[in-house]
Amino acid sequence: MQDGTSVFEDLESQVRIYCRQWPTVFSTARGSRIRDEYGVEYIDFFAGAGSLNYGHNNPHLKQALLRYLQEDSIVQSLDMHTTSKRDFLQAFHQKIMAPRGLDMRIQFSGPSGTTAVEAALKLARKYTGRRPILSFENCFHGMSLGALALNPHAAGEMAQLCPHTIVARYDDESATVSHCLASVEEILSGPDAELPAACILETVQGEGGLSAARASWLEGLAGLCRSRGVLLIVDDIQVGCGRTGSFFSFEQSGILPDMVCLSKSISGYGLPLALTLLRPDLDIWNPGEHTGTFRGSNPSFVTGTAALDFWQDTAFLDGMSAAGMRLEEESRSLAGEYPDVMSGVRGRGMAWGLVCRETDVARSICERAFTNRLLVERSGRHNNVVKLMPPLNISEADMALGLDALRKSVKEAV
Ligand SMILES: *Cc1c(COP(=O)(O)O)cnc(C)c1O
């Protein structure tokens, strides 16, 4: 194994992280299974941190992509009009926005999620003429400076480069909704001149430990923002595209954000694509005011269009909700079996976290899982939450294999 990984150690920057917990070299993957060069097969409960919601190399998406490439179609086009972009816009409108009564403009911001966040922050500041942004404890919105600034704690040494952030308390099931909204209420009751331009949040904190906001907290937050003219931005980069059981994570709560950031699974195939949805009257950009070379990745439009077919496929939708119930049930029963080790579970839909009392235990569960041929990562400020995010269309058999490996790993780790 040493031979296969030494190149990375010799040549690649130390900044790499995921490879450290999975010290092998991956080569092929299909659905919920990923294989390394040595022929070892793992069940994937990581799913590219939410960028592979439809599984690896989904055949429906792959066919569309191969056909597209075979015909010498446009690959890169900045923001020129292309056939594949038109198809994506129409499909997104017809299959996602129209059935949900959403009227929003679509801005392609770049290849990565952080660009969608930057676009939203810039536009909120331009539109309101105000600078501060309200964010929440343990949030994660990306690594470019504007997005990084939203979590001064995580920004570490870069924190001095991160002004104009106001951090509020996130929802927490152990307290009442009004108690949890008090810090937002206080911030928004300040003088008009000090109001934030926008409030940005994840409805389930993907990197922050799977805390899931209650619908009533989201409603309360949306009401407070609306009453003070503070724009509400939902960062659905990780928990959108079906992760919580509906296409957008905020659907069940009934709130209507002013902007929505999407990336990770929006291309469906693991190809780079990010976009920001805007209330039409917010679209006050001048042409070229926020630009970027890779906003026209046509292969991403092609697979992204094909992926939207699943949102009209009842077998997919039923399978996803059954899988979500199974994952929740098993997570709860596991946490219940080890009360000394785990304080409980957090999450929604197909994103669940086992909250361990000790960081070290969470680490050994994930290490044992790798030996037991299951990929799971950790999340949370203290890295103490074992995060379970299988592909949404995982088969019952693979779900069972993954859960067995998880149970075995917990048993071995405690
Ligand atoms: C991953 C993520 C981002 C950043 O996306 P990148 O593609 O890594 O830039 C932003 N917000 C959330 C909620 C994320 O999970």
Judging from the principal axes of the Cα atoms, what is the shape? globular
**What kind of sheet is the major sheet?**
7 strands, mixed
Report the mean per-residue pLDDT as an integer: 96
- Compute the gyration radius: what is it? 21 Å
Write the layout of secondary structure elements.
Blueprint: H1 2-11, H2 18-21, E1 26-30, E2 33-36, E3 41-44, H3 47-50, H4 59-70, H5 83-97, E4 105-110, H6 113-128, E5 133-136, H7 145-148, H8 152-155, E6 165-168, H9 177-188, E7 198-201, H10 215-228, E8 231-235, E9 259-262, E10 274-278, H11 298-308, H12 314-337, E11 342-348, E12 351-356, H13 359-371, E13 374-375, E14 377-379, E15 385-388, H14 396-413
Parallel strand pairs: 3-13, 5-6, 5-7, 7-8, 8-9
Antiparallel strand pairs: 1-2, 2-3, 4-10, 9-10, 11-12, 12-15, 14-15
The site of pyridoxal-5'-phosphate has 15 residues, from helix 6.
